[in-house]
Amino acid sequence: MNATQVKAVDERILQTSRLRKLLGRPELGSVVGAIAVFVFFAFFADSFLHAASLSTVLYAASTIGIMAVPVALLMIGGEFDLSAGVMVTSSALVSSMFSYQMTANVWVGVVVSLLVTLAIGAFNGFMLTRTKLPSFIITLGTFLMLTGLNLGFTKLVDGTVSTKSIADMEGFPSAQDVFASTITIGGVGFKVTILWWLALVAVASWILLRTRAGNWIFAVGGNKDAARAVGVPVAKTKIGLYMGVGFGAWISGQHLLFSYDVVQSGEGVGNELIYIIAAVIGGCLITGGYGSAVGSAVGAFIFGMTSKGIVFAEWNPDWFKFFLGAMLLLATLLNAWVRKRAEATK
Amino acid sequence: MARFRTWVGIALAGALSVSLAGCSSTGGKRAEDARKAASAEGRAAVDTPRWTFAMITHSGDGDTFWDIVQSGAEQAAVKDNINFLYSHDAEAQQQAQLVNAAIDKKVDGIIVTLAKPDAMKSALARAHKAGIPVITVNSGSEESREFGALTHVGQDETIAGEAVGEELNERGREQAVCVLHEQGNVGHEQRCDGVEKTFDGKVQRLYVNGTSMPDVQSAIEAKLQTDKSVDAVVTLGAPYADTAVKAKQGAGSKAEIDTFDLNAKVAAGLADGTLGFAVDQQPYLQGYEAVDLLWLYKYNADVLGGGRPVLTGPQIITKDDAAALADYTKRGTR
Questions:
Q1: Residues whose CB falls within 8 Å of the CB of residue A275, separated by 6 or more in sequence, listed in order
Q2: With the C-alpha atoms ordered A117, A118, A123, A129, is the resulting torsion angle positive or negative?
Q3: CA-based nearest residue in chain A for residue B225
Q4: Which of B61, B67, B222 sits opposite A312 (nearest CB)?
Q5: Phi, psi (rounded to 5 degrees) for A241
Q6: Span B148-169, mean pLDDT?
Q7: B222 interaction partners in chain A (CB closer than 8 Å)
Q8: Per the count of CB atoms within 10 A, which of A36, A41, A173, A268 is most buried?
Q9: What is the rounded CA–CA span in Å between residue A272 and residue A291?
Q10: Averaged confidence pLDDT in chain B
Q11: pLDDT in tens, B271-306
Q12: Tell me, what's the pLDDT at A3?
């Protein structure tokens, strides 16, 4: 339906068309879910609505959200990445160990770490497009290799399974400001990761909705062969998406390093699933071609609210995973239902 | 492809120039090397035959605690002229298979943990039948003797928890939170049980996701924001103590942070007063003693403790002891 047609018909239909457009948004289901979860915990947990509590929830959401954004883009592009969780730990380890071993300014380690994570992303993408193996196999391989490298390499270089403290090295305070500072607004401290998260969501949304690369992402996720037939650089797009995950892992990893200054090499395992869950709750289709960056943010927010809401409400955490699983199913079902309705009325 | 190579070239050149320009004049490896005077490099102190001992633990990947146990065992092995083999698996069944593999290899002694005793019973019976001496470490003090082990070296988790409860009483605490970083770990539950047993105040349990530090931090923060009366947070592993301190600052709480186990950051935290106390079970001693006791048994048929558990802890460490331990934690033996 083009603009002139819309002008020609009466106002009532314009109204429905807007509603239809809204119903077609991938994040709709998750927004409804987020409101429900918010109201739920506002009702059941006394301290949930305090500004300080909200800052805690936002922090929890942002540490997931930073990774959920590139993971969501990758899923829209039709692939997923099981190595995303340990890649965050790798990023922190590389940065810390390089600075320490070379006795370099910590910013050098930060730059080296960026190159390494982008290279890991490029490796994933390159292997995927070259071998035509499913992303499950490729990134499972990377996941295992990185898990082993994290442990083995750290032990080899440092002699123990955690890195040495780099807090007394040059450049640490400024890097800490960038990756792990706290901004106080009205007496409440907000972590800088929230800003990183919002910025990533904004940039990713712009790429998806306003650039040619965004069209490519939807196209390769929707139908790879059709995309290639109309001239979309499929391999380049997929490699770029994996490098995006590398970039996200870099930010998360640097946050990890500069907020705790010592990194445990065994961390990060299992978090890749959390990122995928956040993207799926946020409306990304596991088969690709559909989803949004804003949705992944809402998914991460739901995750943050649920995991911390249970603490605020002082409930038995044994049920957390059950709650999460039920929410994942509900969100996916709601998404599927909404999309079907939207497509049926098109 | 050519363009790709150019990009790689630019990236490498960039990284190189940044690293040349950006040396740190403080901290880092150079400072460590300067600090490290000639530390005694191990040499065998005895000329007994080169026996082979295998150590099989229930450690997960990348666990700082087990790293220290291993380092103790390795140093004792060097001294005792022992060929030392280490393996681990968090799954009980896999761990039992590793023990069986060691028996098949006909090693001269086995050191094993009994975190899940039932799964290890038949493997230990097989070792007994094959005439291989076994020493249990860390967990399983109750089953050790029953399963035919020579002796047990370790700390009773409940006793360690009780020591924490008593120390909290002495410090006049009333509301404690016990932070468990592995849901379903029996040892963790026993530690909190121990705290509950001797502590006069109230103990609440908080389960956190140990593989994600930001999650640990925000969960503790949420807890402290909800319950302002909490005046003590007890973490069950050294790496989580520092995270708890961050959470405390975030929540603006006045709670004291105390922890099980020790590492360099905990020693520093104790020294500057950000941490209250740590209860150490001396993991280095668990590894070292196990190897040494096996050697003593092979060499001289000695059995320490008369078949009763040899306790390596709990040792309460406060501000006064922390400074002396700082160097040991840095080299990874405390």
A1: A64, A67, A68, A71, A84, A85
A2: positive
A3: A53
A4: B222
A5: -65, -40
A6: 91
A7: 53, 56-57, 308, 311-312
A8: A268
A9: 18
A10: 86
A11: 999 999 999 989 999 999 999 999 999 999 988 877
A12: 47
| Shortest Cα–Cα distance, B60 to chain A (Å) | 8
> A34: how many CB neighbours lie within 10 A of its CB?
20
Element (H, E) at B234: strand B232-235
Look up residue A78 and give its two tokens. 């039709």
A317 touching B (Cβ < 8 Å):
yes
Contact A189 B250 (CB under 8 A): yes
A103 contacts in chain B (CB < 8 Å): 23-24, 27-31
User: Does residue A129 sit at the B interface (CB-CB below 8 Å)?
Assistant: no
Which pLDDT score, from 0 to 100, does residue B37 have?
Answer: 44
Rounded-to-integer distance, Cα B294 and Cα B282, Å: 19
Residue B29 and residue A170: Cβ atoms within 8 Å? no
A265, B62: Cβ pair inside 8 Å? yes
A111 within 8 A of B15, measured Cβ to Cβ: yes
The answer to whether B99 and B120 are in contact (CB under 8 A) is yes
**Cα–Cα distances in Å, from A266 out to A90, A109, B61, B70, B308?**
10, 20, 6, 16, 34
Among chain A residues, the shortest Cα distance to B31 is held by A103
DSSP secondary structure code for residue A301 in this structure: H
* Neighboring chain B residues of A154 at a CB cutoff of 8 Å: 62
Neighbours of A221 (CB within 10 A): 26
Beta strands in chain A (DSSP E): 182-185, 188-191
Tokens of A64: 């997931």
Predicted pLDDT at B4? 59
Q: Is A167 on the interface with B (CB under 8 A)?
A: yes
Strands B83-88 and B232-235, how do they pair?
unpaired
Torsion angle of C-alpha atoms A227, A228, A231, A232, degrees rounded to 10? 60
Write out the two tokens for A83.
């190595």
Determine the Cα–Cα distance for residues B297 and B310; give it in Å rounded to an integer. Answer: 15
Task: Give residue-wise pLDDT tens across range B30-81.
Answer: 777 765 543 445 678 888 999 999 999 988 877 788 889 998 999 999 999 9
> Which element (helix H / strand E) includes B316?
strand B315-317
pLDDT in tens, B211-251: 889 999 999 999 999 899 999 999 999 989 999 999 999 88
- Tokens 């954004």 belong to residue: A69
